[in-house]
Amino acid sequence: MSSQSKSGLPPSDAPPIRITRHDLARLDALLDSPTYRQHPGASALQRELDRADLLPDDAPADAIVGMHARVTCIDDETGARHTLTLVYPHEADVDAGRVSVLAPVGTALLGLTIDQRIDWPVSGGRTLRLRVLEVAPADH
């Protein structure tokens, strides 16, 4: 991914992301729920789901950022490492490193593979240039 939008999401011509049918079904249900339908991140997540390549549920997921996966990223600008777990909104806890899929960085990480990059705008006008180093898939 060579270019990124200011929102931290891949541009419309980005290579497709990959998610399992199970994750897609659960995320579609999340977006259909009255609780999250009007969430500020809902439309961005829907755009990502619309462009995703679907994987069978039994596909190896060790290199793909799916729901409940633990992701280790590095900021290519500073060398700082971040470990995050991608979760549903009600499970989010920033202090514990659990990031909602409806947060810009959560939506941007969904479906990425090792060595793919995202730009993540943070306060102060700085942008984190995160590159996925490792993915530990969710325990099923």
How would you describe this structure to a colleague?
The chain is α/β, with parallel strands linked by helices and 140 residues long. The chain is 22% helix and 26% strand. The protein is built from four helices and seven strands; from the N terminus they run E-H-H-H-E-E-E-E-H-E-E. The protein has helices at 21-32, 34-37, 42-50, 104-109; strands at residues 18-20, 53-55, 70-75, 81-87, 98-100, 117-121, 127-136. It has a five-stranded mixed sheet with strand order 5-4-3-7-6. It has a two-stranded parallel ribbon with strand order 1-2. A hairpin with a 5-residue loop joins strand 3 (70-75) and strand 4 (81-87). The radius of gyration is 14 Å and the shape is globular.
Please summarize what this structure is:
This protein is of the alpha/beta class and 140 residues long. It has helices spanning 21-32, 34-37, 42-50, 104-109; strands spanning 18-20, 53-55, 70-75, 81-87, 98-100, 117-121, 127-136.
